[in-house]
Specification:
Number of helices: 4
Number of strands: 4
CATH class: Alpha Beta
Order of helices and strands: HEHEHEEH
CATH superfamily: Glutaredoxin
Distance between the termini: 23 Å
Strand content: 25-35%
Shape: globular
Strand order of the largest sheet: 2-1-3-4
Structural class: alpha+beta
CATH architecture: 3-Layer(aba) Sandwich
Radius of gyration: 12 Å
Length: 97
C-alpha cells in the first residue's frame, strides 16, 4: 500500500482501475487501458487494483461497483467513473486534470 500511496501522491495524474478477474466489463477495460497507457506514457500513470486481493483499498475509496476508475492528482481524487469508458474519453479527462 505504501508504493500505491507514493504513486497517487505524485505530480502526474494517476488513473486507478478497481477490477476483479471474474468481472466481464473489467475484462473489456484491459485493452482500453493498455492503449491509453501507451498514449499517455510519461504524462500519466495507470494502476490496476484487484478488489478481491485488496479489499481494504476498495473500501477506503468507497468502491461498490466494478470496474470503478479514480483519477488522482497529488493524492486527491479528481474524477470517479463506474463502468466501461473509451480510451479517448478517459484521455480527455486525464488531460483536464
Amino acid at each position: 500500500m505504501t508504493k500505491f500511496t507514493e504513486t497517487i501522491n505524485g505530480n502526474l495524474p494517476v488513473l486507478v482501475d478497481f477490477y476483479a478477474d471474474w468481472c466481464g466489463p473489467c475484462k473489456m477495460m484491459g485493452p482500453i487501458l493498455q492503449r491509453l497507457a501507451a498514449d499517455l506514457e510519461g504524462k500519466a500513470k495507470i494502476l490496476k487494483i484487484d478488489v478481491d486481493k485488496n479489499p481494504q483499498a476498495a473500501q477506503k475509496y468507497g468502491v461498490r461497483n466494478i470496474p470503478t476508475m479514480l483519477i488522482f492528482k497529488q493524492g486527491e481524487v479528481k474524477w470517479r467513473g463506474v463502468g466501461v469508458h473509451q480510451a479517448d474519453q478517459l484521455k480527455s479527462i486525464i488531460e483536464k486534470v
